[in-house]
Write a structure and sequence with these properties.
alpha+beta; nine-stranded antiparallel beta sheet; homodimer; five-stranded antiparallel beta sheet
Chain lengths: 309, 309
C-alpha cells in the first residue's frame, strides 16, 4: 500500500527460490517466486477460435470464450461477431462496483433495432453443466460462502456441487455474460456484460456466463459511471462506441494480441494458490492462511516470440 | 443485466409489502420494498466531526471516519486535514481491481517533502480492537472465508473473533486505510488508499482501516489506471490533484453534503440482509439463499430537509 512496496515486490521477483534440500526450511514462496520458476508448459496460448476482440477507441479488450461451459452462447456470439452485429453498437451501462454492459441502443425499437441474420435472438440458458470426470477442477481449500466447492477449470473460476453433479462459471471480476430480460431464455449474447466490481455471486446460475476478460479490463472498469438507474448512461453522447467485435481467428496473425495465460491445472498453479493463501512478501504482518475465489490471480504475460509447434 | 430490469426494479419499488396477517404467505421483501417502509429512525446522519471531504476537480468524495476502530489514525488524519497537509497533493496510484491511493509525490525526498506541523508522521497500528459488549454487531448468517464471523458495526463491515476477543474493520469496497511501508508502525494517514475492487481481505489486520467512502467512490474508481508497477502513474502529469481535504465540521453548513445512511443495528437492516440473501426481484431465477459480506449494500440517501432536533 505504499511506494516502498514497489521496491519490495520487484526485489522479491528477482530473488527466486534458492533453497537447497538440506538448507533450513525456506519460507513458502511468493507469487513472484512461483512465476519466476514457471516453465513454458505452465502457460497456454489463447485459441484464436475461442477469443473475442472488443475494439474500442481506447484499445482492445480481449475475452477468452468458454465453449466448455456455454457452447451455444459461444457459438451464437461468434456468429453475431462474424455478422458484424456489434460493430457500431455501444457500451450503454457502467454501474459502479458491478458491471459494464453493451448492446444495441435501439434494441427495443423494432423498426430501428440492429438486424440479425443467421444468429439467434434468444437461446436456452446455460447456467450450469453436468459435472463429468473429464472436466478438470483445481479445488480451493478454504470454502466459499455461496457454493459447496469452488476452484478453477480450464482457466475459469468455477463452483461445483458434486451431489447435484453440476459445475458452473462464477461471477468473479472480469467474467463476461449474456444479459437477459426476465425470461431465462431471453438472452443470446446480443447484450453482453462484464463484471467490474466485487464478485456479484448471487448472479451465479441466474444468467449465462460465457467468457472472461484476460486483457484490457481497465478499458471498461475505468469508464465513467452512468448516472441513470442501474448505471445506464443518460445521454446518447455519453455512450462508448464499439468499433468492432471480432473472433481473433478472423484477424490477421500479425494483428492478434500475443499473450499467454497461466494454466490452472498444474502443480505450479497449486503453488501459486499457496503463495496467495500465505503472503510472504516482506510487507505482510499476518498471513490470512486462507483465500477466497475472487482473490486468486490468473496471470497473463506476453507470449514468447519463439513459436512452439 | 438488461434494460428491462430497470423497469422491473422500479416497479418493485412502488409495489411495497402489502401482506395481511391471514393472507397467503407473501414472498420475502425485495430491498426496494424494505427501504420503502423504512422510517426516519432507520437512518442516521453523518457526524461532521467524523466526516472527511476529499475535494477533486470532478467533485467531492465523502468519507465516514471510524473513530471507534482507529481512534489514533482518525485523530491524526483530522489534524493533517486541519493543517491543510493534503491540499495540493495528488492521487498517485490507481491499480485496477484493487486500490486508489493518494499522498505526497515528493514524500520520499526529504528536502521537498510536504512538511508536517502538529500531526504525527507515524503511528502504532490499529489493526483490530478489543471486542467489548458495547460494540454493536449485526451478524451475517452465512459465514466467511477469512474470519470466524463477519457482519456490520456502526455502519462498517467488520469481522470478529470472539475467542480472541477482537473485532476489526474489513477490506470491502470503498473502505479507506492508511498506507504504510514494511514496518507496521510506519503509517499515519499521510498516504491514504481506498479499495476500488474485489475485497482484498488478505489485507485485513495488515494495515489500518479508518473509514469508508459513503459518496463519490466513482470519482476514484473510474480514474484511469496507472501503468507503472502497482498502478502508480508513470508521469507526473497523469496524477490527479487533490484540491483539499477538509473535516466536514470545518466546512460551512450550507456547503456540506446532506446525506444520511441506513443504520446497521436495526430490525430493518436485518430485513434488508434477508432481502439480499433471497432476491425476489422478478428477474431472479434462483436465489442464493446466502450472502457474502462484500455483497451487502449500505444504502445512502439525500437527507430529509426537515431538520430533526
Amino acid at each position: 500500500m505504499s511506494r516502498a512496496l514497489v521496491v519490495s515486490i520487484l526485489l522479491m521477483a528477482v530473488i527466486g527460490t534458492a533453497s537447497g534440500g538440506d538448507a533450513p526450511k525456506a519460507k513458502p514462496a511468493t507469487m513472484a517466486e512461483v512465476l519466476a520458476k514457471s516453465s513454458a508448459t505452465d502457460w497456454r496460448p489463447l485459441n484464436p477460435e475461442n477469443t473475442l476482440y472488443v475494439e474500442l477507441a481506447t484499445g482492445r479488450v480481449v475475452i477468452e470464450l468458454a465453449p466448455d461451459f456455454a457452447p451455444n452462447h459461444v457459438a451464437n456470439i461468434k456468429v453475431l461477431a462474424r455478422e458484424k452485429y456489434f460493430d457500431g453498437l455501444a457500451i450503454l451501462r457502467v454501474q459502479d462496483n458491478y458491471v459494464a454492459q453493451w448492446g444495441d441502443p435501439d434494441g427495443e425499437k423494432p423498426e430501428s433495432a440492429r438486424k440479425i441474420r443467421k444468429a439467434k435472438r434468444t437461446l436456452p440458458p446455460e447456467f450450469e453443466r453436468a459435472l463429468k470426470p473429464e472436466v478438470p477442477f483445481t479445488l480451493l481449500p478454504d470454502g466459499d460462502v455461496y457454493a459447496p466447492e469452488v476452484g478453477f477449470s480450464k482457466g475459469f473460476p468455477v463452483a461445483r456441487d458434486t451431489k447435484a453433479g453440476k459445475i458452473w462459471l462464477t461471477h468473479c471480476y472480469g467474467m463476461v455474460g449474456a444479459g437477459r430480460d426476465n425470461a431465462i431464455d431471453s438472452g443470446s449474447g446480443t447484450e453482453i456484460y462484464v463484471v467490474i466490481g466485487h464478485a456479484p455471486r448471487h448472479l451465479d446460475r441466474n444468467v449465462t456466463l460465457f467468457g472472461r476478460v484476460v486483457q484490457g479490463i481497465d478499458l471498461l472498469s475505468a469508464l465513467p459511471r452512468g448516472t441513470a438507474a442501474l448505471g445506464f448512461y443518460e445521454k446518447p453522447e455519453q455512450r462508448v462506441p464499439i468499433k468492432a467485435i471480432r473472433v481473433a481467428a478472423d484477424v490477421p496473425s500479425s494483428e492478434r494480441t500475443s499473450i499467454e495465460l497461466l494454466r490452472t491445472d498444474t502443480p505450479l498453479f497449486a503453488e501459486l494458490i499457496e503463495s496467495r493463501r500465505n503472503r510472504n512478501e516482506e510487507w505482510f504482518h499476518v498471513q490470512a492462511g486462507r483465500i477466497e475465489l475472487g482473490n486468486v490471480p490468473l496471470p497473463v504475460r506476453p507470449r514468447s516470440t519463439v513459436i512452439r509447434k
